[in-house]
Structures are given as structure tokens and as C-alpha cells.
């Protein structure tokens, strides 16, 4: 989920770096955001807009929490695991991201607004349908999760409940802890200490994701010029520009997304193989 879910709303101001030289990431007088709104964004147009809309590394990251939660169950069944994965892909990978793109076009796609509305409605409807099937199969224990999922998607993007969900903690709880708990409940019909602890770990990882991605979005989408330098103890002076500031942030995000995906894949192979 993708952390791109936060892209459509103003974030708290990051410390600014003022100066007189244009960042090399964009032509003079043009914001770097106009060039590439995210490190995973493809060039604009056609199917590439849909790829960008999915926020692939972040969607894969949050779907990994589904696999991790399911893998903690005493017995892992493939059918509810696949159903939970598809439901979260529809709700987060499609619906939430389409709803976010409707609000201000943070990814600068050319996808028509009616198409985004259709994807939002169809994604949420599909997720609810899969949740209802899970309730019918496994009992009423899944009902709170089936209701909470769409509510979280809409509440986050619409900033309902005073915006409490549209916050760092709300993001970490909704797109980190919630998938772990839902996936475990889909397997067992209950909760236990192990998934609660795993949900806390997912909460912390998703909070770290936000701490990295928020300044990265500010640099890519809102900054016009970045200039500065670092003077080392031996007198060496290193220039600081947009790329230098983005590299550790987005490098960490890439590594964390790959790490979570590989961890989830290893657990799936171990439990289902």
C-alpha cells in the first residue's frame, strides 16, 4: 500500500533546504516532481500509468504482511490465503491508490477520472465480496475485519474521524498491523499472541516506511531548488543536492520492500511446500 496512499494529502513541512542552484533532477525553473513523482514511477501514458498507480514496491510490501500473518497460523490453508491476498490487492493496491490519485493527481497519471472511480468502486466491492465469502466459510469472527477494511480505505483518503486515520500512526496501523491480523484470523477464526506481536512489528516497519517516504515525496514533488554542502573534519567539502538527499531515503525503501517480500516468500514456501 502502498505508502503512496499519503501522496494525495499535504504532509507536515519537512525542513527546507534553500539555495540558488536548480536540482539536476529537473530542468531549470521546473520542479523535480514534474520529472518523476516516485522512484518506481514509469513514464506517463497508457499501461505505464496503471503500473505507477499500483505503487508496486509498496503494494508488494503490504501484501507481504498478509502472507506473514497467515504463516503464523498452526495450519495454513492456501484458499483463504489467496482470498485474503486478492482482497487486500483489490482494496489497497487498486481502490485506495485510485482514490488517492483522484485527489490532486499526485502521481501525474493521465488515467481518466471515471476510470479511477470505477476502479475504486470495483476494488472495494470485490474485497467486500471476498470478505463475505470468508465469513460464510469460517464464521462471524471475520466480520469485524470485513467491515474495517473498506472503512479504513475511505477514512484514510477522506480524512474522516478528524483525520486520525490519516496520520503516521493511522497509516502504520491500517496498512501494517491490520493485514497481519486479518490474514491470521482468516486462517484460524481467532487471534493469538503471536500475530499480535507480528502486527506490532508490522506497525513499526510501516512507521519507518512513512518516516523515509515523507521527506522523499517532499523532495520529489514539492522542492524546486536544493543546494548545500557538508564540511568534514578534514576540511573536505561535499556538495548536497536533491539526488544526494534522495539516495539514502529511497535506497532504504527499496531494500525494505525487497526484504519483506523475500521474507514472506520464504515463509510461504516453508509452510505450503
In short:
With 273 residues, this protein is mostly helical. It has helices at 47-53, 56-71, 78-102, 113-138, 143-158, 168-188, 193-221, 242-272; strands at residues 228-231, 237-240.
Give me some keywords for this one.
273 residues; two-stranded antiparallel sheet; 8 helices
Fold blueprint:
Layout: H1 47-53, H2 56-71, H3 78-102, H4 113-138, H5 143-158, H6 168-188, H7 193-221, E1 228-231, E2 237-240, H8 242-272
Antiparallel strand pairs: 1-2
Could you please describe the fold and organization of this structure?
It is a single chain. By secondary structure, the chain is mostly helical. It has one domain. It is built from eight helices and two strands. It has a two-stranded antiparallel ribbon with strand order 1-2. Strand 1 and strand 2 form a beta hairpin. Helix 3 packs antiparallel against helix 4. The radius of gyration is 20 Å and the shape is globular. The chain starts with 46 loop residues before the first helix and ends with a helix. About 11% of the residues have low confidence.
Oligomerization category of the chains in this entry? single chain
Mean pLDDT: 88
Q: Treating each run of at least 4 consecutive H or I residues as one helix, how many helices?
A: 8
Number of domains: 1
By DSSP, the count of extended strands is 2
Amino acid at each position: 500500500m502502498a505508502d503512496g496512499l499519503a501522496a494525495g494529502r499535504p504532509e507536515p513541512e519537512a525542513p527546507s533546504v534553500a539555495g540558488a542552484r536548480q536540482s539536476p533532477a529537473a530542468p531549470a525553473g521546473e520542479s523535480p516532481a514534474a520529472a518523476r513523482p516516485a522512484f518506481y514511477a514509469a513514464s506517463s501514458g497508457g499501461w505505464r500509468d496503471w503500473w505507477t498507480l499500483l505503487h508496486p514496491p509498496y503494494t508488494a510490501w503490504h501484501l507481504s504482511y498478509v502472507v506473514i500473518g497467515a504463516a503464523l497460523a498452526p495450519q495454513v490453508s492456501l484458499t483463504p490465503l489467496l482470498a485474503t491476498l486478492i482482497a487486500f490487492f483489490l482494496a489497497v493496491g487498486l481502490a485506495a491508490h485510485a482514490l488517492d490519485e483522484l485527489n490532486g493527481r499526485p502521481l501525474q497519471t493521465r488515467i481518466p477520472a471515471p476510470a479511477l472511480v470505477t476502479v475504486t468502486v470495483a476494488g472495494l466491492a470485490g474485497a467486500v465480496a471476498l470478505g463475505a465469502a470468508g465469513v460464510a466459510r469460517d464464521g462471524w469472527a471475520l466480520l469485524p475485519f470485513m467491515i474495517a477494511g473498506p472503512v479504513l480505505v475511505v477514512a484514510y483518503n477522506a480524512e474522516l474521524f478528524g483525520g486520525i486515520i490519516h496520520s503516521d500512526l493511522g497509516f502504520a496501523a491500517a496498512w501494517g498491523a491490520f493485514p497481519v491480523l486479518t490474514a491470521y484470523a482468516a486462517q484460524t477464526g481467532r487471534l493469538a499472541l503471536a500475530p499480535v506481536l507480528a502486527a506490532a512489528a508490522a506497525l513499526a516497519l510501516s512507521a519507518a516506511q512513512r518516516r523515509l517516504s515523507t521527506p522523499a515525496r517532499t523532495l520529489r514533488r514539492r522542492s524546486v531548488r536544493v543546494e548545500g554542502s557538508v564540511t568534514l573534519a578534514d576540511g573536505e567539502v561535499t556538495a548536497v543536492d536533491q539526488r544526494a538527499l534522495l539516495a539514502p531515503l529511497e535506497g532504504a525503501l527499496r531494500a525494505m520492500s525487497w526484504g519483506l517480500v523475500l521474507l514472506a516468500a520464504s515463509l510461504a514456501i516453508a509452510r505450503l511446500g
